[in-house]
Design a protein that fits this description.
Blueprint (H helix, E strand, L loop, with lengths): L14 H20 L3 E2 L5 E3 H7 L5 H5 L3 E3 L5 E4 L4 H10 L9 E10 L11 E10 L4 H18 L4 E7 L3 H16 L7 H5 L14 H7 L11 H16 L5 E2 L13 E7 L7 E7 L3 H4 L7 E7 H8 L9 E7 L8 H12 L4 E3 L6 H10 L2 E7 L5 E5 L5 E4 L4 H11 L1
Parallel strand pairs: 1-5, 7-8, 12-13, 12-14
Antiparallel strand pairs: 2-4, 3-4, 5-6, 6-11, 7-9, 9-10, 10-11, 14-15, 15-16
The structure holds histidyl-adenosine monophosphate.
């Protein structure tokens, strides 16, 4: 037994799980591809500044969760904790503003956050993400939300709940925070002491308080949605109308917050009751100021990311296609010592489009037939001392002596009949 284990918060993707992930990837490819999204892959690590500036210096991600290291030449690099800032960096670096807009990109990549591991929360995890850069209209937001809903449904993620809100602009938010802080200070008697202590740090947290007194006070509190500038309110109203027309159910949640600083206007999150504490399956929003923040021209953007592990946890059974073995080449007699004929038959069968394996472990013929049965082989060809090959149909049990050259055509005919 090896004394090594996968690092805390990481996991191995074993073949059965890899098969479920492949199905998930196919759904993402189909759904996003049909809407014009094309795949992008960015490096696993980036300049640390990309995230401190992009995601936000004050966020938990940047403050506590980044895997940051020196590259040996005095440059600070960080394992990507998320995909939006890297995709925007690539958009700028490759002059994608010259392409037809919006540029629609999707990814399925792994990300790294030094969080306390628990069910559904890992230090290396995968996300499917979609980003539409260069279009500011509400149709983009609504289309992205709908694509995400379609993906979750295709995968069979259960008990989902969609909450949406709008953050307006940074200026509106700053003004609103001042108003909310003043509202709270004027009512400190009606707030829990820990809420009072946090008023100036983050007044929004008061909405999350669990105690009844604070909750009663907060019923009269102004919400950010009430304070949106008219263009922002209109943008949000249009997003909602399109979601309504599409028949998508959602809840308005004016207190919705997400742990990344780049959002402006539309914000959304899918949770699943099946997941327990780590209930966030997917989330995203509009990030119109991000590209500018990274040194580019003012460029609108909107997108989302969905956690692969959380989707799979909440998906239950995700049927995977059976792994077919058309032919197993068994070896008897002198073929046990000299595997050249068996080797050639298996290789030729694969070139003809069949899936074929040959005996590699030196088992007895009985052991080989048992093995062929276990891996679900449809045919077994037994190569021995004769010039002919015994071909056995494992479904019917029929067995016949066959010219070596006839083995592959026989199986191909068989596959067509099946
Ligand atoms: P996020 O909400 O930080 O957003 O992450 C998106 C999803 O990734 C979460 O809903 C969750 O399913 C999954 N996830 C996050 N952290 C972990 C973890 N430690 N272990 C397992 N799964 C995790 C973003 O990353 C934004 N870049 C989304 C976005 C794209 N916004 C605009 N465009």
């Amino acid at each position: 037994v090896s004394s090594f284990q996968a690092p805390r918060g990481t996991f191995d993707v074993l073949p059965a799980d890899a098969a479920r992930r492949a199905v998930l990837e196919q759904h993402a490819h189909r759904i996003l591809g049909a809407a014009g999204y094309r795949r992008i892959e960015t490096p696993t690590f980036e300049s640390t500044q990309l995230f401190s500036r992009g995601v936000g210096e004050a966020t938990d991600i940047v403050q506590k969760e980044m895997y940051t290291f020196d590259d040996g030449g005095g440059r600070s690099l960080t394992l990507r904790p998320e995909g939006t800032a890297p995709v925007c960096r690539a958009y700028l670096e490759h002059g994608m503003h010259k392409l037809p807009q919006p540029v629609k990109l999707w990814y399925l990549s792994s990300f790294f956050r030094a969080e306390a591991p628990q069910r559904g929360r890992y230090r290396q995890f995968w996300q499917v993400g979609a980003e539409a850069i260069g279009a500011g209209g509400p149709e983009t937001d609504a289309e992205l939300i709908l694509l995400l809903a379609d993906l979750l449904e295709a995968i069979g993620v259960k008990e989902t709940r969609l909450r949406i809100s709008s953050l307006g602009t940074a200026a509106t938010r700053a003004e609103y925070r001042r108003e909310l802080a003043a509202f709270l200070h004027a009512r400190e008697d009606g707030l829990a002491p820990e809420v009072v202590a946090r008023i100036d740090l983050n007044p929004m947290r008061a909405f999350d308080a669990g105690d009844a007194i604070t909750q009663r006070t907060m019923r009269d509190a102004p919400t950010l949605l009430d304070r949106l500038a008219s263009e922002d309110a209109e943008h949000f109203a249009q997003v909602r109308r399109m979601l309504d027309d599409a028949g998508l159910r959602y809840e308005l949640d004016p207190t919705l917050v997400r742990g990344l600083d780049y959002y402006a206007r539309t914000l959304f999150e899918f949770t699943s009751e099946d997941l327990g504490a780590q209930s966030g399956v997917a989330g995203g929003g509009r990030y119109d100021g991000l590209i500018e923040q990274l040194g580019g021209p003012a460029t609108p953007g909107c997108g989302w990311a969905a956690g692969v592990e959380r989707m799979l946890l909440a998906a239950g059974d995700l049927p995977t296609p059976p792994e077919l073995v058309d032919l197993f080449v068994a070896r008897a007699g002198r073929a046990l010592q000299d595997g050249a004929d068996a080797f050639a038959l298996a290789a030729n069968a694969r070139r003809a489009g069949l899936s074929a394996q040959l005996e590699l472990d030196g088992r007895s013929l009985r052991g080989q037939l048992k093995h062929a049965d276990r891996i679900g082989a449809r045919y077994v060809a037994i190569i021995g001392d004769e010039d002919t090959v015994s071909l056995r149909n494992m479904e019917s049990g029929d067995q016949a002596e066959t010219e070596p050259a006839a083995v592959i055509p026989t199986i191909l005919r068989g596959s067509r009949l099946a």
